[in-house]
Amino acid sequence: MKTIRELQRRASPAPKPQSLAWDGATLWMGSRETKVIHALNPATWTVGWQTAAPGTPWGLAAVGTELRVICGETSEDHRIIRRCVPGRGFDPAFGIPCPDDSGAQLGWDGRSLTVSQWYPKKLLTLGADGTVTRVIQVPHGICGQVVVDGCFYLVTTDAEETTDYWLTRVDPRGAEPKIEDIAHIPFAARALAFDGKDFWTNHREQDQIVSFARPD
What is the pLDDT of residue 175? Predict the structure, then answer.
């Protein structure tokens, strides 16, 4: 299996970068340590806007011109999907509890949100009211997720304390999902975003954001 081809590593604007999303022009990052969402210009690597999240921003997805954020809230780390409007902030009236109070990353396919559960190794697609409409079981723990060309691309691992991580592709079309590990990621990656050409992830413990080429 090939190893990903890194294109750049940049210092994160905040420590412990945890979540990422791309909205067509801006790379959004949520910090596990500061609990702040940052809008990054990938060309200048400057922060244009930022806002405090109501909890730890574990996962991010761009939904049109808005963001959906899995927030770990309260001392028990309850996982709730929140709505964030860039330039304005979080909508206090919007909240969808994660199924089983568990959620690590988010994906958006243009119609539905999908929550990934790391240790249960599941992708849960949600209806508008948060009802689970589809479950896909994958072979590894999931610590990054993005939807590209109708497929889920995941950052996965079997042992989070190691450097054995993979880029895993899940094609949900057809009677049974097709699941394939397509590249090795040689560090403990968190989150996944796609800018239309390249992937982005976090090397969280190094406080770095990494871009890498889409595998052939």
Answer: 87
